[in-house]
Design goal:
The structure is a single chain. Strands 1-2-3-4-5-6-7-8 form an eight-stranded parallel barrel, surrounded by seven helices. It starts with a helix and ends with a helix. The chain has twelve helices and eight strands. 46% of the residues lie in helices and 13% in strands. Helix 5 crosses helix 6 (119-127) and helix 8 runs parallel beside helix 9 (182-191). By secondary structure, it is of the alpha/beta class. Strand 1, helix 2 (26-35) and strand 2 (39-42) form a beta-alpha-beta unit. The protein is elongated and about 90 Å long.
């Protein structure tokens, strides 16, 4: 069954947690879809996790479209969400144009960072029938990669709650809460009627999102994440074993090769001998 916004809202209403993971390629998309992930998310974190960029702000529309198309080919059932990269939604016209590119590439919805300053853009996208996921708290495109927790004071907590309400009223269908105190995230989740997706925002959001690299154990471990596999170690060991076997002559073996039939080999050898005599 193809998951849509109605399905995700239903999970919120029934207090069933929504599962979200970032994804950047076709084989991982296939695995996530088969595992039943609710939202497969092509994040701009592709820049620092896959492309070797120093910051998410280096990611372009071309980068995002390339990876979105790859992921799209592997997704059948999950809701497919994609990030608007840095400077791709500076004004209403630009945001609508770029969002339509993403929908043409197969996305179900787009995510954009920012608070109440993004309300005109969210409204414009909603008027175009484009499903939008807001993103408040820590915004990597705005605040940089070094994350600080938001919502620790009365004023900041109030600002976050008001922003969430305003974005929902403007037409946002989902909202990501990143690096927000657990208590404030819970208040927002109980206040808005759209699903909240937390990352480093505690236990009371409607869903959770993590970067696939963090789940697999690629790169450093962060406080908000959990490793479910040790990809770095396992992959290094596999590569090292391959290097050793090639250098020692243990690979390939007879199991890894294909032979020509003896009678045909004999014909080839006979032909080579005649060729050499004619030189």
């Amino acid at each position: 069954m193809k998951k849509d916004i109605g399905f995700l809202r239903g999970k919120k209403q029934q207090h069933q947690p929504i599962t979200v993971l970032t994804c950047y390629d076709y084989p991982t998309a296939c695995l996530q879809d088969d595992a039943g992930i609710d939202i497969v998310f092509v994040g701009d974190s592709v820049g620092t996790n896959i492309l070797g960029y120093k910051s998410e702000t280096e990611v372009t529309m071309a980068d995002m479209r390339h990876h979105l198309k790859a992921v799209r080919r592997g997704v059948t059932d999950a809701y497919l969400l994609v990030d608007m990269p840095y400077a791709a939604d500076c004004d209403v016209k630009q945001a609508v144009t770029n969002a339509k590119f993403f929908l043409a590439d197969g996305a179900d919805g787009v995510k954009l960072e920012g608070g109440i300053e993004k309300i005109p853009i969210v409204k414009a996208l909603a008027e175009q029938g484009i499903e939008t996921c807001a993103h408040i708290g820590h915004n990597p495109q705005i605040h940089g990669s070094k994350a600080a927790t938001h919502g620790k004071t009365f004023a900041k907590a109030k600002r976050l709650i008001k922003a969430a309400e305003a974005l929902a009223d403007a037409g946002a269908k989902l909202i990501v809460l990143e690096k927000i105190t657990e208590e404030v995230s819970q208040i927002i989740t109980e206040t808005v009627d759209i699903p909240t997706i937390g990352i480093g925002a505690g236990r009371y959001c409607d869903g959770q999102v993590l970067v696939i690299n963090d789940v697999l154990g690629i790169g450093p471990l962060f406080k908000h994440a959990k490793r479910y596999q040790d990809y770095d170690h396992l992959t290094f060991e596999a590569i090292l074993q391959y290097v050793n076997e090639v250098e020692n002559g243990d690979f390939p073996t007879d199991d890894n090769v294909v032979h020509i039939a003896p009678n045909k080999l004999a014909r080839v050898q006979k032909w080579l001998e005649s060729e050499r005599r004619n030189i």
